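User: Fold this one for me? It's SDR family oxidoreductase.
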Amino acid sequence: MMLKGKTALVTGGRGGIGRAICARFLREGATVYAADVSEAGSLGAHDADGTRFIHLDVTSENAAKAAMAQVADDEGKLDILVNAAGIEIEKTIEDTTLEEWNLSFAVNATGTFLTSKYALPLMRAAAKSGISASIINFGSYDGFIADPGLAAYCATKGAVHALTRAMACDHGPEGIRVNAICPGYIDTPMLQSFFTGDGSGAGGKSIDALQQAVRDVHPMRTYGTPEDIANLVNWLASDEARYASGQLWVLDGGLSAQVQQMRL
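Assistant: Here's what I get for SDR family oxidoreductase.
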């Protein structure tokens, strides 16, 4: 087991990708805290799986402090932090309200800042063992290039990319590695919402036809699964990745490697 004896906290831990990460961490022997705004999360009813649930609104400084205080009381250290909580608003900047813009940054960027800020003392405690601690943020391939109608989302992910590099430089000397995973299209509730939203450019197409178009635009002719993301997160969290830090790991089935992409 790659994570035996380690303690991990996953924000958005009851979402599609978050649940897959928590499940993988459990199989690898970690003690896992699933932090989210509700225990059911975006996937609905949740069966007991061995994770420890923490109610966490990542936009709240007090909630971030309380979550890390609970981990401190229980474990005294935190080896792995995964900042997977996120939202997506499907609008151009002209159609985006200031409230929506601020909410996007509050969840995607400020949430990453707050949980990381208050996790750092616990991660320094973990790194004292001589093995590095690991923070894994969630960027997006939309932080490099852009899908239409996702202006605020793209902006927040670019911010997470820059923050990841800065954190890696600042905290590497303390034994804390920081990386970001940048997914493409992953089969989650957020993706299914995109298929039905205005930003998809569906143009009257059926959902099935749009889903197939998305698959076909990828060189691998498919989009990813939460388990695909969890595999990479698990490696970055493990001691095998001891020399990996400050990097943006794109996992998109080759989508962004193409010169030209279909507008969806």
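One thing worth pointing out: The longest helix spans residues 98-127.
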